[in-house]
Design goal:
The complex is a heterodimer of chains A (103) and B (384).
Chain A lengths: L1 E2 L1 E6 L5 E2 L14 E6 L1 E10 L11 E8 L4 E6 L8 E7 L2 E6 L3
Chain B lengths: L5 E7 L12 H16 L8 E5 L8 H8 L5 E4 L6 H14 L5 E8 L2 H10 L3 H7 L7 H16 L3 H15 L13 H6 L2 E3 L2 E2 L9 E8 L10 E11 L17 H8 L8 E3 L5 H10 L8 H9 L11 H5 L3 H17 L13 E10 L4 E12 L1
Parallel strand pairs in B: 2-3, 2-4, 9-10
Antiparallel strand pairs in B: 1-7, 1-8, 4-7, 5-6, 8-11, 10-11
Helix pairs in contact in B: 7-11
The chains are: A mainly beta (103), B alpha/beta (384).
Chain lengths: 103, 384
């Protein structure tokens, strides 16, 4: 687990993206720099209660979030944070997760 | 307007929730091809072109399927556009016939992944899903569209029962379709009591995976069986990656071409007699209908409660995928086209919409990261 989530910023127009693009959709620049975003606001949540083809599935929470770095992304929620909550982001492998920001 | 290309036949296989051991997607596709050839009164040797879409072909490709079907072709395409593949293939086939690349084209879609196979498809749909969504346990498309549905409910002030009107109305149509997998009546109480799958989506909001196949034959209009009216496509449009996944998913790619589609068709939403709107989720049916201008004032709630709930406008008269089942998005999209053809030719049996002359059909699909990135639509007309 590592703090923050990697996003990709166009070296030309500075727009941030997730996942990684090949050309910037805004200016079509081809150079990107990685950046880390650490916070996001939860916009919508869902609880995945059933997974096709899986038995003994335990419900998991996911959320669509607006990150402080610009792009929206889908994260796994590791607590009961709901819409409007500010969460801290972290990565496990290549997947983004979040939980309530420590006070 | 396509003047020199028309839909001359349609056919489908049986649909089943659980295929028999040894029964593969290829068997379902074969059955759909035989049915469509019979319907069009053409022989396999008359087919000069084929377009196919399926999750189940690999490691084979389209040419291997042509071999297995004994088709020697001069035009061949393999489409990968999921729920809009049917509509995408229809546009390509019409253009192939119109330009003389092939005189008669078979369009084919089908799948028999089974539930475990579908789970693998859903978890590995593209690299964004593999790397960034599957590790979350995101639930495949159910999880993706659960988030879109939450957004739609909030933005348009919908209630849970609003989606229920769509599911219930389509189940009533499905009762009249012998191919539909789910035909038993569905009440609002049953709809509301159904277990949640991915909040706020419950069982009847999520398209059921089935095995099956659909085929459509496009040719020059004079190849159509003489004993029945022809079906011409007045207008066809498609969109791919319309917003780089930077929107909210409540508008689809249809929003980029709807006005052109109506203009080319010389028609307005009020002129449509029957509509096939891609329905993997009621949420996305509403998004497409709104993009097409079928929902006055963007009043989605009224559309659900009055237009659909009071049966004022026939949508997905074969039961839609929500009741007939989804044999992969490819064949699911083709089902809507086939139903439009049957309705326009007044061959839809008990579910026939009286006097249908103009139909709308759509496709939507390819969940890229936050929602679908492909969409297509056509206006079809009965030609005496």
């Amino acid at each position: 687990m590592s703090a923050g989530v990697t996003i990709w910023r166009c070296a030309n127009c500075r727009a941030g993206f997730f996942p990684e693009p090949l050309l910037c959709p805004r200016c079509h620049g081809k150079k990107f720099e990685t950046d880390r975003v650490h916070e996001a606001v939860v916009e919508e949540i869902s609880v995945i209660r059933h997974m096709i083809g899986q038995e003994n599935w335990q419900p998991r929470r996911i959320a669509s979030v607006l990150t402080s770095g610009g792009p929206r992304m889908t994260v796994g929620l590791r607590d009961e944070s709901g819409p409007g909550a500010t969460i801290e982001l972290f990565e496990e492998g290549t997947a983004p997760f979040g939980r309530a920001k420590a006070k | 307007m396509f003047e020199n290309a028309a839909i001359i036949g349609v056919g489908q296989s049986a649909y089943t929730r659980r295929p028999e051991p040894g029964q593969t997607a290829l068997h379902f596709m074969r059955d759909a091809v035989v049915a469509a050839l019979t319907d069009a009164s053409v022989g396999a040797k008359d087919i000069q072109g084929m377009a196919v879409a399926s999750f189940s072909l690999a490691p084979d490709a389209a040419v291997d399927l042509a071999w297995k079907l004994g088709l020697s072709l001069r035009w061949l395409a393999q489409d990968t556009n999921g729920g809009s593949a049917g509509m995408s293939m229809l546009g390509n086939a019409l253009r192939a016939v119109e330009t003389g690349a092939a005189e008669t084209v078979l369009i084919l879609g089908g799948d028999a992944t089974g539930l475990a196979g579908y789970a693998k498809v859903a978890a590995n749909y593209n690299t964004a899903t593999q790397k960034h969504l599957s590790p979350l346990g995101h639930g495949g498309p159910n999880g993706v569209y659960a988030l879109v549905a939450s957004r739609q409910i909030k933005k348009y002030g919908l209630e849970k029962s609003d989606y229920g009107h769509i599911a219930i109305a389509q189940r009533q149509w499905a009762a009249k379709n012998p191919y539909a997998v789910y035909r038993a009546p569905l009440t609002m109480d049953e709809y509301l009591a159904a277990p949640l799958v991915a909040d706020p989506l419950a069982r009847y909001d999520c398209v059921p995976v089935v095995a099956g196949a659909q085929a459509v034959i496009v040719a020059q209009p004079d190849r159509a069986p003489k004993a029945r009216p022809g079906v011409r496509v007045r207008a066809h449009r498609a969109s791919y990656n319309y917003d780089n996944q930077e929107g909210d998913g409540l508008q689809t790619g249809i929003s980029t071409f709807a006005s052109e589609l109506w203009q080319e068709a010389g028609a307005r939403p009020d002129d449509i007699d029957v509509a096939s709107i891609y329905d993997d989720y009621p949420t996305m049916l509403l998004a497409q209908a709104n993009d097409l201008g079928l929902i006055p004032g963007n009043d989605l709630a009224r559309f659900c409660r009055v237009t659909i709930g009071e049966k004022r406008f026939p949508v997905n008269t074969w039961g839609g995928m929500l009741s007939a089942g989804q044999p992969g998005g490819h064949a699911g999209g083709l089902n809507g086209i086939s139903e439009a053809v049957l309705q326009l030719q007044h061959r839809a049996g008990e579910r026939q919409v009286k006097g249908a002359r103009l139909a709308l059909a759509t496709g939507y699909g390819m969940t890229m990261y936050r929602y679908g990135g492909t969409a297509a639509a056509a206006i079809l007309e009965r030609v005496e």
